[in-house]
Amino acid sequence: MASTRILKVKTYEEMSVLAASMIGAQVLLKPDCVLGLATGSSPIGTYQTLVENYRKGILDFSRVRTVNLDEYCGLTGDNPNSYRYFMNDNLFDHVNIDKANTHVPNGAAEDLEAEAVRYEQFIESIGGADLQLLGIGHNGHIGFNEPDDCFPPKVHTVALTESTINANARLFERREDVPTQAITMGIGTIMKANKILLIAGADKKDIVEKALFGPVTPQVPASVLQLHRDVTVILCEN
Ligand code: GLP
Questions:
Q1: 46 lines ligand 1 (CB under 6 A)
Q2: Could you tell which of 12, 37, 39 is best to mutate to test the pocket of ligand 1, judged by most ligand atoms within 8 Å of the CB?
Q3: Ligand 1 centroid to 41 CA: how many Å?
Q4: Ligand 1 centroid from CA 14, angstroms
Q5: Coil, helix or strand for 32?
Q6: End-to-end alpha-carbon separation of the chain, Å?
Q7: 164 CB less than 6 Å from ligand 1?
Q8: Which residues contact 29 (CB under 8 A, 6 or more apart)?
Q9: How far is the centre of ligand 1, averaged over its atoms, from the C-alpha of 52 (Å)?
Q10: What does the pLDDT read at residue 1?
Q11: 16 lines ligand 1 (CB under 6 A)
Q12: For position 196, what pLDDT does the model report?
């Protein structure tokens, strides 16, 4: 049966601590778990808290495996705007994870179709994510699954919408540097995770409400989460 817990918190710090607690609990429960990870501003505090907990000796990432949701097309991992770089910089470089166990789709692959097939098969081969962390875009996108006529089942490449390009432009030196394409887990890939943890700041309040209580429609990709059996949403009110 579908079940969604909505935890409302007052601050970004509270959201980060709660999200990191849940991820930490998953690692304790299954030290060789597969964590599905996300990028963006929302999870930065969560990753900082995980790093702090690792430094305190509370967390051990030595057997953890990770799969990231998405990556920009055309950017290599040494590009500071790539999601691989983001993950190294915000988490992997600061904990005892084996980098060989961290996976991000290769947005610089020559054959992106083949890369999409490879990444989907790889995720399946390791049993999918035990816990998938998600942020949400202002248009309800999860990963880079933009509003569409259908829910994409598998890893695929996607053309980013103007609204997503504009939202992400803040992280680039020039707007024209923002890639217009990305490779992302599909909605089907995301939905196969055992547990889902969605974190959202106060600016996402309206879209979270629409996603959780409105109709299930690919025009609001996150609305599909209403059908997942185990979703926790941490919504920051300020
Ligand atoms: C990007 C990522 C998403 C993320 C979204 C929201 O588009 N591909 O995975 O959820 O941004 O990011 P933020 O948390 O910065 O608002």
A1: no
A2: 39
A3: 7
A4: 19
A5: coil
A6: 31
A7: yes
A8: none
A9: 23
A10: 60
A11: no
A12: 98
pLDDT at position 20 is 98
For the chain, residues with pLDDT lower than 70 are 1
Q: Which amino acid is present at 117?
A: V
For residue 233, count other CB atoms closer than 10 A to its CB: 21
Write out the two tokens for 231.
Answer: 């979703």
Which pTM does this prediction carry?
Answer: 0.96
State whether the beta carbon of 135 lies less than 6 angstroms from ligand 1: yes
Q: How many CA atoms lie within 13 A of 109 on its CB side?
A: 18
Core vs surface per residue 167-190: b (16+ CB within 10 A) or e: bbeeeeeeeeebbeebbbbbbebb
Topology of the domain covering 4-236: Rossmann fold (3.40.50)
Distance of CA 97 to the CA centre of its chain: 18
> Could you tell me the distance, in angstroms and rounded to a whole number, from the CA of residue 18 to the centre of ligand 1?
19
Residues with catalytic roles = 70, 139, 141, 146
Nearest to 75 by CA among 187, 190, 183, 185: 183
